[in-house]
């Protein structure tokens, strides 16, 4: 059973999405400096598109995200520490996740979201890499037992 199978369980999915939204909220809130102010403003704009927009976007991206992370997670499971392995391979994980969001944005007709994403895409890899340990803990939490 892959990550997508286990984490898309209707009994878990809503909680997984909520935890991912919380992780993103915390990551954005922790950003400092001029870049952080810009990111907070852009994220606020995206959140203002409509109520629940971020959760809806995450919900739509989860199946592809879990499919993309599944090989890395499986390698980590073979070592006995999938959380640590995914964290150690955060660059690879970030590339996999950004490939999905890049493709999604490419197809988006929402100019506000597209503009906000494109404004921060160059620095996005390091931001996603910073979030991977938290994402790994979320995945671990919902794949146990």
Pick out its properties.
145 residues; mainly alpha; 0% strand; globular
Overall pLDDT confidence: 89
Q: What is the overall silhouette? A: globular
Terminus-to-terminus distance: 13 Å
- Poorly predicted segments: none
| Helix and strand element order | HHHHHHH
Residue share in helix: over 70%
Instruction: Tell me the structural class.
Output: mainly alpha
Q: Which sheet architecture does the biggest sheet show? A: none
Radius of gyration: 15 Å
Which percent band covers the strand fraction? under 5%
The tally of helices reads: 7
Number of strands: 0
Secondary-structure topology with pairs:
Blueprint: H1 3-7, H2 10-29, H3 33-47, H4 53-79, H5 82-88, H6 90-107, H7 111-143
Please, could you describe this protein's structure?
With 145 residues, the chain is mostly helical. It has 7 helices and no strands. Helix 4 (53-79) packs across helix 5 (82-88).
In short:
It contains seven helices and no strands.
């Amino acid at each position: 059973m892959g990550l997508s199978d286990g984490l898309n369980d209707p009994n878990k999915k809503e909680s997984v999405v909520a935890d991912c939204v919380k992780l993103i909220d915390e990551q954005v809130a922790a950003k400092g400096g001029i870049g952080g102010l810009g990111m907070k403003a852009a994220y606020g704009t995206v959140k203002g598109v409509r109520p629940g927009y971020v959760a809806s976007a995450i919900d739509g991206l989860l199946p592809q995200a879990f499919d993309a992370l599944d090989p890395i997670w499986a390698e980590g499971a073979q070592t006995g520490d999938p959380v640590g392995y995914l964290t150690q391979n955060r660059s690879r994980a970030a590339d996999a996740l950004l490939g999905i969001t890049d493709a999604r944005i490419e197809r988006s007709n929402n100019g506000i979201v597209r503009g906000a994403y494109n404004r921060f895409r160059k620095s996005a890899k390091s931001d996603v890499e910073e979030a991977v340990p938290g994402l790994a803990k979320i995945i671990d939490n919902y794949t146990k037992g």
